[in-house]
Amino acid sequence: MNNSTRSSLRLALLGASGRMGREVLALLPGNSLFELSGAGCSSGSGLLNQPVDIIQPGLPALLFQADPAKVMQGAKVVIDFSLPGATQAHLSACREQGVAMVLCTTGHDASQLEHIRELSKSVPVLLAANTSLGIALLNRLVELAAGVLGEQFDTEIFEVHHRNKRDLPSGTALGLGRSVARGRGSNLDSLRQDRLPGSESLRGPGSVGFAALRGGDVAGEHSVMFAGEGERLELIHRVSKRATFAHGALKAAQWLAGQPPGLYEMSDVLGLK
Ligand SMILES: NC(=O)c1ccc[n+]([C@@H]2O[C@H](COP(=O)([O-])OP(=O)(O)OC[C@H]3O[C@@H](n4cnc5c(N)ncnc54)[C@H](OP(=O)(O)O)[C@@H]3O)[C@@H](O)[C@H]2O)c1
Q1: Which of 175, 192, 254, 271 is most buried, judged by most C-beta within 10 A?
Q2: Which atom of ligand 1 is nearest the CA belonging to 131?
Q3: Which ligand 1 atom is the nearest neighbour of the CA of 44?
Q4: Which atom of ligand 1 is nearest to the CA of 85?
């Protein structure tokens, strides 16, 4: 075993067979910072029990597995890019194995978010609906703008994603909404107004509107508009490559491995707090 292997971080990857999982796998061959120790897929996956190097040459001799406890065995940190239906089982396995989790899956409901908070009391958990640097910074800018402009500026959040994205509005859009609420000293639940067909057409005073489009292969676009009398401020972030999220997830994993139990976000990783 050489020095670089000895100091590598043992990393498990849940949702490894999916679009984002494959982006992470693509960054691992030749990367001495990480050693892949497990790769997860669903129990109905066509890749179940297949070697991971089928989709990415240069990876260790591992098979795709559906049991999250087996995927995490021996890992120091796990990155989860699966779907919210799998989160409960993944959290339980994390608790049993004492593995730190970078949870990149989006679309969690209130009860799942409560379980995530609960887990963070015993292991480090980083909840990241978006692992790009730009979104972490955008959240700070949005919080600042919302605080300065206040309720007099109508706030609308708009997002575009590829045709296969399931949750709507995106987890990132909701995170931006929470930043608006934080900037105004409020909470999103009392401000949120979704712009869906058939929903109320007049905006409520001080509300935060959400709208979304789905199509093509768009990796992710988010804009926040503050519209006042005679002026409008728009803050926009566009991702053109999914690899951007994968790089961010690996950076987060490296950072989280050294942290005590707690609930963290990307702004902690990037020192933006
Ligand atoms: N944090 C970020 O920056 C970021 C960026 C992009 C996307 N996301 C989020 O990441 C998640 C994955 O996105 P994606 O585009 O990669 O989706 P995807 O292509 O549909 O991949 C989903 C993955 O989860 C696995 N899976 C599905 N159901 C499962 C279950 N019950 N148990 C275990 N594994 C299961 C799938 O396995 P099989 O397909 O092999 O069955 C596949 O590996 C989504 O929630 C998305 O919103 C986050």
Answers
A1: 175
A2: 3
A3: 41
A4: 31
- In the prediction, which pLDDT does 110 show? 92
Asked whether 21 and 52 are in contact (CB, 8 A), the reply is no
**The 220-227 sheet, strands edge to edge:** 192-194, 208-214, 154-161, 220-227, 232-239
Ordered domains of the chain (ranges, CATH): 3-127+243-269 (3.40.50.720), 133-239 (3.30.360.10)
Q: Is 131 in the pocket of ligand 1 (CB under 6 A)?
A: yes
Q: Known catalytic residues?
A: 161, 165
User: How much is the average pLDDT of 103-116?
Assistant: 95
Angle between helices 19-26 and 243-256 (to 10 degrees): 70
pTM of the predicted model over 0.85? yes
| Whether the Cβ atoms of residue 48 and residue 23 lie closer than 8 Å to each other | no
Q: How far is the CA of 246 from the centre of ligand 1 (A)?
A: 13
Q: How far is CA 107 from the centre of its chain?
A: 10
Give the gyration radius of the chain's Cα atoms. Answer: 19
DSSP string, 83-149: -GGGHHHHHHHHHHHT-EEEE------HHHHHHHHHHTTTSEEEE-S---HHHHHHHHHHHHHHHHH
Give distance in angstroms: CA of 44 to centre of ligand 1: 14
What is residue 200's predicted lDDT score, i.e. its pLDDT? 63
**CA diameter of the chain:** 66
pLDDT mean across residues, the chain? 95
| Residue to substitute in 82, 160, 174, 264 for testing ligand 1 pocket (most ligand atoms within 8 angstroms of CB) | 82
Cβ-contact 90, 84 below 8 angstroms: no
Q: How confident is the model at residue 1 (pLDDT cuts 50, 70, 90)?
A: very low
Task: Measure the CA–CA gap between 91 and 95, rounded to whole angstroms.
Answer: 6
CA 216 to chain centre: 21
